[in-house]
Amino acid sequence: MAKADNGMRPKVLLVNGSPHRRGNTFTALSEVAKTLDAEGVDIEIVHIGNRPVQGCIGCYRCKEKGICVFQDETYLTLRNGLAEADGIVIGSPVYFGGPSGSLCALLDRLFYSSGSLAQYKPAASVVACRRGGATAAFDRLNKYFTILNMPVVPSQYWNSVHGRNPGEALQDAEGLQTMRTLAHNMAWMLFNLRGGAIPSETEDRIHTNFIR
């Protein structure tokens, strides 16, 4: 939830899930960032890099400790950024019709171990693709938000830009406009939710599986 109205600008964490620091995913996120800044929102862009990423091993130790047992620098950077932010935008290139595998490995660990830091914060995803697979990748990323009570910020179209080589997304006028509209809506949601009460759970959480 956005912070109380104390005169401070709300802050949005933007995650560049591409191994390319300044590729088309960065172009999309930069368009969001510029508009957020113009709307009075602070931004932080985190690049996950191109090093190997540890995935979740299902040890469930984070449920005891409140933090993933694999405390690599990138995970901790994202976790700290999520804790400080009022909203989040996650960007990814499209690989085989889905988001970057390294990004998903990090997000699996981040959202499972630190979901309490994310709840009720407005969220959005953006994707960059050469041609196809954008909506499938977009859908995959949004699932991280919809399981954690995070309001998903809309835009005028699905949040995608097109381009293969770095900088080509700058030619996608509709895609860039979609990014700006997304940022306007994110700012609108942050300022209108600011100071609002977070909903309280009215029922004990029920966990079931398919054999009992």
Describe, in short, the structure shown.
This protein has 212 residues and is of the alpha/beta class. The chain contains six helices and five strands; from the N terminus they run βαβααβαβαβα.
Task: State the main characteristics.
single chain; 212 residues; alpha/beta; Rossmann fold; five-stranded parallel sheet; 6 helices; 5 strands; 14% strand; disordered N terminus
Please characterize this protein's 3D structure.
- With 212 residues, the protein is an alpha/beta fold.
- The chain has a single domain (11-193), classed as Rossmann fold (3-Layer(aba) Sandwich), CATH 3.40.50.
- Helices cover 37% and strands 14% of the residues.
- It has 6 helices and 5 strands.
- It has helices at residues 24-38, 62-65, 73-84, 101-113, 134-146, 173-193; strands spanning 11-16, 42-47, 87-93, 123-129, 160-162.
- Strands 2-1-3-4-5 form a 5-stranded parallel beta sheet, sandwiched between helices.
- Strand 1, helix 1 and strand 2 form a beta-alpha-beta unit.
- The model is unreliable at 1-5 (pLDDT under 50).
Biggest sheet, spatial arrangement of strands: 2-1-3-4-5
Q: Using only CA atoms, what is the Rg?
A: 17 Å
Mean pLDDT: 94
Please state roughly what percent of the residues sit in beta strands, choosing from under 5%, 5-15%, 15-25%, 25-35%, 35-45% or over 45%: 5-15%
Low-confidence stretches: 1-5
At CATH level 3, the topology is: Rossmann fold
Total count of helical runs of at least 4 residues? 6
Kindly give the count of domains.
1
Helix/strand order, N-terminal first: EHEHHEHEHEH
Distance, first to last CA = 35 Å
Q: What is the total tally of β strands?
A: 5
Instruction: State the CATH superfamily name.
Output: Flavodoxin domain
Characterize the overall form.
Answer: globular
CATH class: Alpha Beta
Structural class: alpha/beta
